[in-house]
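seq/struct pair 1
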Amino acid sequence: MERAFNRAYGFFVGLGVGFSYSYVLEVRGRKSGKNCSTPISLLELGGKKFLVAPRGETQWARNAEAAGEVTLKRGSKRRKYRVRPLADGEKPEILKTYLDSYKGAVQKFFPVKAGSPVSAFVELAARYPVFEIFAG
């Protein structure tokens, strides 16, 4: 059911319909070499942009790290970004802000509740890939 929803939502985001923070992430597969896509929620914090993998070590996260770049698409606009994986020590504040911002969609993937202190995310950081993205 969730896979079908993500496909449908990704289709609409690809057309430019959806929340302003919603994009279709496209990344080259590390094994297949084919472009893979998935809808994501982009987090902007302190003037920086971040991609968070709320489901943990997903294929898109592994592919993004291997490729070193991703493309974000929304409607007819496409923009390529370089990615920098964050160290675990850099993640707690970003994970907290991500969960607090998108709790309706991602709470089920986190063992702590939205609104928890930053310290609650320290032990979880290794389980969730986070990337800072740069225009490139």
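seq/struct pair 2
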Amino acid sequence: MKRFAYFMLLILGALQGCRDDLSIGKNLIPGSDYLNAIFTDTLTLKTKTVREDSLSARDLSQYLLGASIDEVFGKSYSAIYTQVRLSTAGISFNDTAFVDSVVLSIPYATYYGDKNAFHFIRVYRLTDTINASSDIKYFSNQTFSAEPVAIGQRLHFSTSADSSFTEDNVTYSPAMRIRLDTALGQDVLNQTPDGAFKSNTDFKNYFKGLLIAPDTSFGFTKGKIGLNVRSDQSFLVVYYHTPNTTSKKLRLPLNSNAVNVNYHKHNYNGSLIAQALSSPSSFSDSLVYVQGMAGVKGKITLPTLQNLGRVLVNKAEIEITRAVNKFADDSLFAVPEQMICIAADSNGNNAFIPDQLLSLSGQPEYGGKKVTITDALGHTYVRYRFSIAAQLQLIIDQKKTDYGFYLLSFPSNQLANRIVLGGGNRSGDNYQMKLNLAYTKLK
């Protein structure tokens, strides 16, 4: 399992975007500082598409939900496991409480794909415990057992139909609201101050949490919901009354004090990338596929790098370009605003490269921002550039072993964005992936 520490990559938010000049290598041609430098953009790049194993799935800024289909990237399934907590320990109702309704309410964070697409979501009560220890790391292939019968559902709805609402003079953001069984609410209300309501630990032992999952028996749709599960507006709300009162509420938060885990799985059968994945040993792909949600990523190797001999790397940029828009879903599914180029380690895991941090100290910017470029003929290209000079120097100096590079969307564990890129095997067209390299020969 790939233990990729995504919290470190938040540093990338401080980095500047890529330069927007169209001339390949223009910004790499040496100036007065590198009079003896050599520039090349013809070094061999071998590329292929590989599956991602798993990614960090806990403490995310947004959680993805839904069953989506894409002619290029096949089917993907995203579900959410979450704890439910007490807002106050030692709750006592004094009178007998009678449930009126139960609603799970989670605000929307974003949407990917067709916002008018219909979704079919069911909610289940967990039977497995989610360990709340901060030392426990959960990944996107983690599962927890749940009761087989759903305790709530919302079928055939689109997020475009939901709007903000006001309750108790508080305005809440547009949210996915799902009615749950009143029997669940009555069972919660029947708990006691010295029992399940005594503390959050006692409540967690009584109510282990929820599974929120798409029902694929209704098929797959062209979109994915992004939910702000850790928001202070995420609640399981029990509406109730007592013999002496009406319209009371018990709010049980799903916020940042709870543990929430995002689960993803993919089925590429029958999709356009199935063939690219069927030959994992091949490094001759003319197209490279990158997808979030622990889907697929690009791998790059530089088989002729050591042929340069002993050199000083002045500047080095991996340049990638979105392949020409020729698939029906390309206009519907947005490409990433940010991508990252990282290293593979000896086990094939994701590993940081020093260039990701060097730009903070005045070194060449790492890059990775999406840049849209239009040439003199009116042709438009979507490109990303990454500085990898420090990593290449370590490899050339044999201070690091070269296991290749990976291309991922960012943050890949929180976004569904995907992109089709030109690979290294494209005969030098404008979509070919390349390394723009300026170096000085050393004696």
